[in-house]
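ok trying again, last paste got cut off:
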Amino acid sequence: MVDIATRVHNRKWKIDPIIRSLLDTDFYKLLMCQSVFKNKPNIEVTFSLINRSDHVPIAKIIDESRLREQLDHVRTLRLTRGESTWLRGNTFYGKKQMFRPDFMEWFENLRLPPYHLECTGNQYELSFEGSWPEVMFWEIPALSIIMELRSRAILRGMGRFELQVLYAQAMTKLWEKIKDLKNLDDLSIADFGTRRRHSFLWQDWCVQAMQEGLGSNFTGTSNCLIAMRREVEAIGTNGHELPMVYAALAKSDSELLQAPYKVFQDWQEEHDGKLLIILPDTFGTKNFLENAPSWMNDWTGIRVDSGDPIKGAEIAIDWWKSRGENPKEKLLIFSDGLDVPKIKELNDKFKNKAKLAFGWGTLMTNDFRGLIPDKTLEPFSLVCKAVAANGKKTVKLSDNPNKAMGPKEEVNRYKRIFGDGEKLKIDLVV
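nice, full thing came through this time. structure:
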């Protein structure tokens, strides 16, 4: 097993670049990209870094030259022969050859487009522009780079033994969480922690700990590179990016109202079975489900990713019942800011009402809270979102107003079209 503390102390950049591979990304990025490559290949998009925890002065913590060095390195990466073989020949979600030959040929030749970086006050403005299939692959590496550079900057002044103790404490903390989760009935949990992880080596260690500690109850990781190396399932379906861009491309209010369903219509033409997971909260869960077409009734499950997870799950269960479906045969996936107490609460409340799965993210792969006195290693809310498509600004309403984004006029328009509903502001930890 890798001695993480020694690697951090030695700081050998060539051994430990933050992004080691184009596969060091979330599996849903590949699935979404294949859909975009087929249906919207010529759309021009802009992705931008957004620090929702603006009290964290990223530009003061991270040296700009180090940031550029890591971003430039990502642009040198290509899919290796072994990585291509894994994608082409592996079985994902029970499906052989998940990725089409035309998509794989394109992906094997992909080079990530240029970036734009400048410092404004205590924050960095980091953005990426170009064709949607290419630019979308910047999201996860950009976030991972910022988060790990921040960790490295904070740890740079620590000695070898101090680092050994810190990581021993962090390992013990995670292992105690794993032991606590081991007591849950029929637990199904996966690693969703790539984008805001402490570091690549730490995420890799966390996955190994979950494998040993939870056995078959650990269902896999969203990180493709770790899934390949550790021989676990790659987990993921679709994200908010798809409906946000589809909606921005709508040419009328009526087309805008149908845009989220067009996303899933395109998705259904490409996927079936376990990949038919509804993510309904981009413009509000309740209204999305109430107006959903009947062909979505028999989809496998619903991912609850913002707002109050208990309320979101109850809305999903009521919707299934109203459509004549049996919730006990459906899958509820919880994936928003989870930690052990919330996982236990949700499991206890809904384990007899539906099939359950949990995507455990930042508070698995970056929970160093309380381990150093000044709290500088505490996780924070950083995202990289599609902010424009073909020159038109995107919008996200969310079930949590603190996650909403977009120009005020467009946000008001979306609220008028999709409805606003009752929403509870929930503080963003991650």
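cool. The first strand starts at residue 44 and ends at 51. The chain has a mean pLDDT of 95.
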